[in-house]
Amino acid sequence: MRRIIFNQKGGVGKSSISVNLAALSAASGKKTLLIDLDIQGNSSHYLGIDINAKNDKTVADLFDQTVSWFSVSTPIKQFPQPTAYENLDIIPSSPRLAALEPELERRYKIYKLREALDELESEYERIYIDTPPNLNFYSKAGLIAAHNLLIPFDCDTFSHQALLTLMDNLAELRDDHNRNLALEGVVVNMFNAQAKFPAQIIERVRELGLPLLEPFIPQSVKMKESHYHQKPLVHFAPQHKLAQHFAELYARLESAEQQVPSPGMSANNEGAKAAQS
Ligand SMILES: Nc1ncnc2c1ncn2[C@@H]1O[C@H](COP(=O)(O)OP(=O)(O)OP(=O)(O)O)[C@@H](O)[C@H]1O
Ligand SMILES: [Mg+2]
After folding, report:
1. Inter-residue contact 236 to 225 (CB < 8 Å)
2. How far apart are CA 67 and CA 65, in angstroms?
3. Helix and strand totals (H; E) in the chain
4. 226 within ligand 1 shell (Cβ under 6 A)
5. Residue 164 near residue 41, CB atoms below 8 Å
6. Model pLDDT for residues 194-223, shown as the tens digit of each residue
């Protein structure tokens, strides 16, 4: 099953959530792959990978071989590289993604990631896809390749507006490219239970008909510390309340996943459809 984490708004927690859920998945014994589609390479960095170091097995190399006529192509199964964590592999980002994007767009390579991930499906029980903060070629390719979608939300007015745009974009993408993309729900991140405003803005998200996943992930400086130490928070501070909230969220997602017979449209999609009408 492939789970993408996307919101075109920046800084809402996409990379933090992708890496921590992938780390929990791997720690639970599931063979897990993280794909970093963001040129910033934050989730690669979080997992200890220097995206500026020489590496010919990045996500840019994977896309590159779809447009290079003369290069000998590397089998897809050779792209994932191990991380410091058992069961957790990564295909890291690369600064070369930017230069490659116009050529990939021009030559309609938008389905290539889905084809590549189809080949990896037998190797990994869970594939997590981190995305850039805009609906560009790479985030679209990820949304086309994914089965399930999580939308991080950081309790901000601009985030609420971004959700409206996102729902429009998703409806179109579903219609045109991936009818089976299931919206698992909105992950409320950086939640402050003491303040009134976050609860009010979350209520407005609920009114849109979007499924809100629980528990809400609290705000804590431990997250930034874990980034600094390049160690997923769930390993950096496993006893911390933030890690425990992640573990609970992960368990809920997985138990809901058990009830869905196969990757594809879940009942949750009805919320997203309602938001369109
Ligand atoms: N629950 C949290 N508590 C405190 N800080 C957080 C939390 N989640 C994320 N952050 C911080 O917020 C910032 C943005 O997080 P992150 O990089 O995960 O977001 P993003 O959506 O991937 O950003 P971008 O759009 O730039 O890719 C980082 O500094 C991160 O440490
Ligand atoms: Mg990010």
Report:
1. yes
2. 5
3. 12, 8
4. no
5. no
6. 989 999 999 999 998 999 999 999 999 999
Q: What is the CATH number of the domain that holds 198?
A: 3.40.50.300
Q: Please, which residues bridge with residue 187 across strands?
A: 152, 213
Kindly state the tokens that stand for 82.
């191990």
Q: What is the mean pLDDT of residues 95-103?
A: 96
Report how many domains make up the chain: 1
CA 154 to ligand 1 centroid distance, Å:
9
Q: State which residues form the domain around 198.
A: 2-276
What spacing in Å lies between the alpha carbon of 205 and ligand 2's midpoint? 22
| Cβ(232) – ligand 1 distance below 6 Å | no
Task: Output the CA 12–ligand 2 centroid distance in Å.
Answer: 8
Mean pLDDT lowest among 169-173, 211-215, 258-262: 258-262
Number of the ligand 1 atom closest to the C-alpha atom of 9: 25
